[in-house]
């Protein structure tokens, strides 16, 4: 088995070979590190590698494999988005304002994967503070799509998606605030899962919008995504919003197929403005495959969809303006110490440390929360959020899960939307409703358009991860469409 063969394995395949002794954890990690060294100068998925972490974790994995008590992810190479704290590892949220910051603790979701044996290769690039849909807003450099290096990988978790798509990591972690796992998963042709709000602890996540953020996995198969999600889910006393529901319930009956299930297609999503003909054709083909597998396709409506984008871009910036107030250069990160006074220090530090998109959202959010405008904007947006949640509740009375395209377009050229923020925001029009309603969702590869990946999105009711995974797995099996490792050019 060649090194490149090792970078195309699923967790299930790799675990079997590790148990048999056909490969070692060192072989697996070395193959991925060599691929990173060869390809990442072009893809730029990683901000920094962590040999000081993986060397210890490989040694521990090999010891436990020899002793016959290997945990589920023993030796599995993992990449971590640069908004998730890992003790002693520089974590900057893709921003210059946090350059040099090394957290004194590890976030719960990451820690649970470490306990399960995962081996951390490094930290992946992202839009600054997870604000963006293309990873062009990184404070360091843009990441490129492994399928076409002239195009974006999506965002904000573009580095994590690109790492899996390029075979540079077997699994990775991202965050999803308005679609930031599902959209890059679609554009990079991998599986990306957003859990129900509260399923996974947010402790150790550098917050963007606290009522919307969720941590989830990227993987090469639905089975791998389901396993990783089950391992990092569950109650965490360090996060008051985490649920006490057991993580393993996400696996309940998820391999049962779709025979007899009703899958809703919202007309507002199916005919969304700007959807490309090739994307629509791929979704039509996916719906046919699901029908052939035994599902019934039903029409449903989400009538407040048109208001979702406006509501999201009031609520998210409002929460961001509050969360990012702590980054003032006093306790950690960038500090303009030559300023004349403390107020000038704040202003200079934030002006120099924050990028254009972050400053834009902080200003929008501060305005929406200001005296005289709170009721007109923020409060009204929260009322719209309630209406959107009710739309989904009504739809789920008629169907078991909702299916649609994940993104209305395939990966677009780098630089094509950077001067038009609204066109960039529209990239998330099919995903942000799931965040506003706190629902679980997944994107799975469903063919290509013009040689670029298309994603099928499945949304389920709250705590219905097993339903979402069931539909996604059934489609994956019926279509025989697995996440392919991209041929980076």
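-> sequence recovered:
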């Amino acid at each position: 088995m060649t090194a490149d063969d090792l970078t195309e394995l699923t967790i299930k395949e790799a675990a079997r070979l590790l148990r048999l002794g056909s490969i070692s954890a060192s072989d697996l990690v070395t193959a991925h590190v060599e691929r990173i060294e060869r390809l990442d100068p072009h893809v730029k998925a990683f901000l920094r590698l962590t040999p000081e972490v993986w060397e210890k974790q490989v040694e521990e994995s090999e010891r436990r494999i020899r002793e016959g008590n290997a945990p589920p992810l023993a030796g599995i190479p993992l990449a971590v988005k640069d908004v998730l704290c890992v003790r002693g590892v520089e974590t900057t949220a893709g921003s210059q304002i946090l350059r040099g910051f090394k957290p004194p603790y590890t976030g719960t979701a990451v820690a649970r994967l470490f306990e399960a044996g995962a081996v951390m290769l490094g930290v992946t690039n992202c839009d600054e503070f997870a604000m963006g849909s293309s990873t062009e807003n990184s404070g360091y450099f843009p990441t490129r799509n492994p399928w076409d290096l002239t195009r974006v990988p999506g965002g904000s978790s573009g580095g994590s998606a690109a790492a899996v798509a390029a075979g540079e990591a077997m699994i990775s972690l991202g965050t999803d605030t308005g679609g930031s796992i599902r959209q890059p998963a679609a554009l990079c042709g991998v599986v990306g899962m957003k859990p129900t709000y509260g399923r996974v602890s947010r402790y150790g996540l550098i917050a963007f919008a606290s009522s919307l953020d969720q941590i989830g996995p990227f993987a090469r198969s639905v089975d791998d995504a389901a396993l990783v999600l089950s391992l990092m889910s569950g109650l965490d006393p360090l996060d008051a919003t985490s649920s006490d529901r057991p993580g393993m319930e996400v696996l309940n009956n998820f391999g049962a197929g779709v025979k007899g299930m009703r899958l809703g297609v919202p007309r507002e999503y199916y005919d969304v403005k700007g959807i490309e003909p090739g994307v629509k054709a791929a979704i039509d083909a996916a719906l046919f495959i699901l029908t052939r597998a035994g599902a019934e396709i039903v029409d449903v409506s989400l009538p407040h969809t048109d208001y979702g984008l406006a509501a999201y871009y009031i609520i998210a910036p409002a929460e961001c303006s509050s969360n990012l107030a702590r980054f003032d250069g006093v306790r950690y990160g960038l500090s303009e110490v030559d300023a004349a006074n403390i107020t000038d220090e704040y202003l200079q530090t934030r002006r120099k440390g924050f990028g254009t998109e972050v400053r834009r959202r902080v200003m929008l959010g501060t305005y929406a929360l200001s005296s005289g405008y709170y009721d007109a904007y923020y409060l009204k947006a929260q009322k719209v959020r309630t209406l959107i949640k009710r739309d989904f509740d009504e739809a789920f009375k008629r169907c078991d899960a909702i299916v649609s395209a994940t993104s209305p377009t395939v990966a677009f050229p780098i630089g094509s939307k950077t001067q038009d923020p609204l066109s960039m925001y529209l990239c998330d029009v099919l995903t942000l409703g799931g965040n506003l309603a706190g629902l679980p969702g997944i994107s799975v590869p469903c063919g290509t358009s013009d040689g670029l990946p298309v994603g099928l999105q499945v949304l389920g009711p709250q705590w219905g991860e097993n339903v979402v995974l069931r539909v996604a797995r059934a489609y994956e099996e019926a279509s025989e469409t697995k996440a392919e490792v991209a041929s980076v050019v």
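DSSP finds 17 helices and eleven strands in the chain.
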